Amino acid sequence: ACVISPLAAAFLQTWPEVRIELDLTNRMVDLVNEGVDLAIRIGDIHQTDVVAKYLCPYRMAICASPEYLARHGTPRTPADLVDHLCLSHTVWTARNEWILPGVTGEVRWKRDAILRCNDGHGLRMAAVAGAGLLLQPEVLLAEELATGKLVRILEVFTPQPRPIHLLWRQDLRPLPKLTRFVEHVLSAVQELI
């Protein structure tokens, strides 16, 4: 939302006759059956009936507020997480589980979250207020990390980036508005990375 909404607004300023319906959802959308022109998907693409254009990496960060770290200490390895409080998003499929790369394979931190929330902004505000450790996409944390309200931790153990793709149907004659919007998004993303 924090990236695509401004891109859509900028596109509409150039092409005011176009109308955009922006559906921000975590569910897997069926482009063909639901009549969706374009989707943004995180992760590997296993579909052959759509066009997939790589955008950029989806990087995660583990962070906490300086106040939280002053009270609880700074974890240096995943083993240190046993003494820390977790903030969790309710859409996570494995209950409150962080899967982090380790020296000998994946490290799983499974702990009941002190706070679960269905909104990333709400989780960030709780982390800034010192409630616990947060694992979130870098793009959502940019302002808080830049201002020092949140501090990166366990950088060596941060999950590997996943690819972000634009997806659209394989139409023989793609709509000009879709072609232009794809070009607009690709151009804007290249400036961001």
The count of helical stretches stands at 6
Pairing-aware structural class of the strands and helices? alpha+beta
Q: Estimate what percentage of residues fall within beta strands.
A: 25-35%
Fraction of residues in helix: 25-40%
The ordered H/E elements are HHEEEHEEEEHEHEEH
Could you walk me through the main structural features you see in this protein, from its secondary elements to its overall organization?
The chain has 193 residues and is α+β, with helices and mostly antiparallel strands. The chain is built from six helices and ten strands; from the N terminus they run H-H-E-E-E-H-E-E-E-E-H-E-H-E-E-H. A three-stranded antiparallel sheet has the order 1-10-2, covered by helices on one side. Strands 8-3-9 form a three-stranded antiparallel sheet. It has a two-stranded parallel sheet with strand order 4-7. Helix 1 packs across helix 6. The longest helix has 17 residues. The radius of gyration is 19 Å and the shape is elongated. It starts with a helix and ends with a helix.
